[in-house]
Design a protein that fits this description.
The complex is a heterodimer.
Chain A (H helix, E strand, L loop, with lengths): L1 H31 L5 H31 L3 H39 L4 H4 L2 E9 L7 E4 L12 E4 L2 E9 L4 E5 L6 E6 L5 E5 L2 H4 L4 E7 L9 E4 L11 E10 L5 E8 L8 E5 L12
Antiparallel strand pairs in A: 1-2, 1-12, 2-5, 3-4, 3-12, 4-5, 6-7, 6-9, 7-8, 8-11, 9-10, 10-11
Chain B lengths: L1 H19 L14 H12 L2 H19 L5 H14 L12 H21 L8 H45 L20
Helix pairs in contact in B: 1-2, 1-3, 1-6, 2-3, 2-4, 2-5, 2-6, 3-4, 4-5, 5-6
The chains are: A alpha+beta, B mainly alpha.
Chain lengths: 287, 192
């Protein structure tokens, strides 16, 4: 009896050691050769994507049902507020209509070539999210079959969401701009000053990410628009990222920094648009 | 045995799918409960060290393949946690619903702490207070709350399939174990 017990302990120890060694091996392999294991990732993604899609649809249905029970009073108040807003907006629309015709005139004048407005877009549904709940990466239900390739830009609600980092047969992984790994070359729409928009999951809890490397001479103030810049090699130029607040000097005194409120609501993102155009490599221009 | 393995595989797949889909809609205080951790720690506690480690390995590998940056990192953490929870199998009792909650809470705490060290501390982020208030403690508490339900389901499931396995063994006459009414369910696996 006692001997048997010992034997069982030994073999479980052996199993644990073997598994731990496999893990360490995998870490080393995937660190040194990141591409070797990507077929495995693809296969796993392909296997789970249809199931995740199905469950997400059900889950969204359930959460929609739950929302029905949310406070009625709140809805009534909201309704009043929205009616007011609607009236104001109607007036606004008339005014904007006039301004729009003016704008199209100026656009022609400047030969404004908005790449992303003319190129084809694919709508995709978010089927799974980063398990940590930080919205730094998520998966959508369109993949290589729909012509999605890595480095395609992703937008939603008029603003930049992020970039496609990996694709499988019927799924694509998207890294959002609020991810700590994300750094985008941006530009102030009004003053044409360049800056770097850097993701910051911690600050995102208050609704902001960072803007860095703004020139000391740049005259930028709160609520200025930041769009993707022409010098970025992955992002198409002119996509709205968000609005800056809290512009201040960097501790280094060499440049300014600010907070940026993204226009996209990452918490409640359910569908996104993937722009089917990849920024061409700029190397060719140097010749 | 094969049936049980199959059931455990299904349990792992279902937890993974729920973790990445439904529960990301059921956020509280910006955190998602860690269903895979509940499965790993519970199976370690209910079945044993070996199963705990293997379950942890499978769960971790699934996470690595879909969301990890390095394949094997989550797998290593989950394997270790499953294995350690397996030590508590010695004092397993089917009626005890308190100890597993502490186990799961402890596991989640350990996991989140290691996560902080690997993904924040090594990047030079020393603000552990902020991390623990915004991420670690909410996550531990939410996971423990959800585990109250999920642990019961896992426990019931395992006992049910134990009974089916045992019935098959008895029919074949492959066991000398005597049927003592409900007593067999307070299992001591090593006696079989």
């Amino acid at each position: 009896m006692a001997r048997e017990k010992k034997k069982v302990n030994f073999s479980s120890k052996l199993v644990f050691t073997a598994l731990a060694m496999i893990c360490v091996g995998l870490i080393v392999v995937s660190y040194l050769f990141p591409d070797v294991l990507s077929p495995v990732r693809n296969a796993v993604g392909n296997f789970f994507a249809p199931m995740q899609k199905g469950i997400t649809v059900i889950g969204e249905g359930i959460s929609d049902k739950l929302k029905l029970f949310s406070d009625k009073k709140e809805l009534i108040e909201q309704n009043e507020k929205l009616t007011d807003e609607l009236n104001n907006l109607k007036v606004e629309i008339q005014r904007l209509g006039q301004e729009k015709s003016e704008l199209s005139f100026y656009r022609e004048l400047y030969e404004y070539d908005s790449v992303y407005q003319n190129s084809q877009k694919v709508a995709a549904r978010v089927i799974s999210r980063d398990p940590n709940g930080l919205c730094t990466t998520f998966t959508v239900d369109k993949g290589a079959d729909d012509g999605i390739t890595p480095d395609m830009n992703v937008v939603a609600g008029g603003g930049l969401v992020g970039i496609v980092t990996e694709t499988g047969k019927n799924w694509a992984k998207i890294r959002t701009i609020i991810s700590d790994d994300s750094a985008i070359s941006g530009r102030f729409q009004i003053t044409s000053d360049n800056c770097i928009v850097r993701g910051n999951t911690k600050r995102m809890e208050d609704g902001f990410i960072d803007v860095e490397m703004i020139s000391l001479n740049a005259e930028v103030y709160d609520n200025y628009e930041v769009v993707t810049s022409y010098i970025s090699d992955k992002y198409l130029p002119g996509i709205l990222i968000g609005y800056v607040t809290n512009v201040r000097k960097d501790p280094s005194e060499l440049n300014k920094r600010a907070y940026l409120a993204p226009v996209v609501d990452f918490e409640h993102l359910e569908a996104v648009l993937i722009i089917k155009a990849v920024r061409e490599n700029l190397e060719g221009l140097e010749e | 045995m094969i049936l049980k393995t199959f059931v455990i595989i299904i349990e792992i797949l279902v937890s993974f799918l729920f973790q990445t889909t439904i529960f990301s809609h059921l956020k509280l205080a910006d955190v998602v409960p860690d269903i895979l951790m509940i499965t790993t720690a519970s199976l370690g506690y209910i079945v044993g060290k070996k199963t705990g480690a293997l379950t942890g390995f499978a769960c971790g590998l699934l996470l690595d393949c879909t969301y990890g940056t390095l394949i094997g990192l989550y797998a290593l953490m989950y394997t270790a946690i499953g294995y350690v929870c397996g030590f508590a199998n010695r004092i397993y009792s089917e009626e005890d619903y308190t100890l597993p909650l502490f186990l799961i809470g402890g596991s989640e705490f350990a996991f989140s702490f290691i996560y902080y060290v690997l993904f924040y501390l090594l990047k030079g982020d020393l603000d552990f207070g902020h991390f623990s208030m915004r991420f670690l403690f909410p996550r531990v508490i939410y996971t423990v709350m959800v585990s109250i339900i999920i642990y019961r389901l896992l426990n019931l499931n395992t006992r049910l399939f134990d009974r089916i396995d045992l019935g098959a063994k008895k029919r074949k006459g492959g066991t000398t174990h005597e049927y003592k009414g409900l007593d067999i369910f307070s299992r001591q696996p090593k006696q079989f």
